[in-house]
Every structure is written in C-alpha cells, then in structure tokens.
Amino acid sequence: MNYDEYYLNQNTIFLRKIIPDIEERLEKIDIVSDFKIASSEKGYPILMKNGIALNDKYNPIEENINVFEAVPQSKDNIYIICGLELGHLLTFFRDNSQGQIILFENDLEQMKYTFSKVSLIKVLGCPRVYVATNFEELNKIIVHIKLLSKIEHIYTVANEYYSKIYSNTIAQLQETYV
Question: Which of 49-53, 89-93, 154-158 has the lowest mean pLDDT?
Fold first, then answer.
C-alpha cells in the first residue's frame, strides 16, 4: 500500500460514520483533472486544479484568518465550509471555532485527490466536524445537530476561490440555511 492509498483509506474510515457509502462512491471516481500541490509565496502548500489555485497563492493562512473573522463566533453556531482544497479552512475552523462545522464538498474527484494526499484524520475525527457531499446529506446533518444542540445561526463560509467558483451553490446554501 502506498501513501496515497493509506491516506485515502484512513480518511474514509472517519467519513464512513457520516457517509456510509463514501468508500464505494470514491472508488468509482477517476481522477482526470490535473491536480498538483504547489507552494504559496509564503511557503504553505496549496492545491492547484487545472492550473488554478484553490487557495490564496500568497498566504492561505491569512486568507483563513480573514474568512474566520468575517463571521461571528459562538459555540451555538453552525459553520458550513464550502470546499475542501487541502483542508486549510476546515482545519482552521476546527482549531479556532467552538461551533459545529460542516464541510460541504460536492466535487468527489477533488475530495478523492485531497484525501489521498493529506491526512485529515484529526479533523475528521473531531466530534464537531461533519462532511456532506450533497444537499440531502447536508439536511440530515443539520437536523441531527439541531436535535443535539441549541443553534443560533448558520453561516456559509468559503475562501476566495470557492466564493467565485461555487457562488450558485453558496447562494443556495445561504438561501436555505442562513
């Protein structure tokens, strides 16, 4: 087993609790896009897809701070993070927020690539972190969280790349949940 298979296997073990059929779904996905991990100008790893950076090319950590500071923080909030990239924003919210966090990533090809390159088991193993790949899964997670916790607000957040590329998805999420 190589590192790619090992990371993918380890990450999907944690996802099975949330998305029982995720292994079968990812197994059917062929990675045809040109993905590569590059370095930002500050030296942080960033994900490139078909030559386009999915993170800030200068400093993705500063980008995460700006996204984080743009929404009010409370343990009674749900934060829907649009887009996985290399998991920077998801990890940042897990480390700095007290609220419930849902990663919404509907690009299974990118999810498979990232999960085969980066170990996110500490993030995926956090009881406040959930993953949804479609609106049906997202609805189930939100209902589940609301049954367990008092929820004040739901915020949809994304870095600059996902804000542009997935603007229709983000708008639909905001209209439905915010």
Answer: 154-158
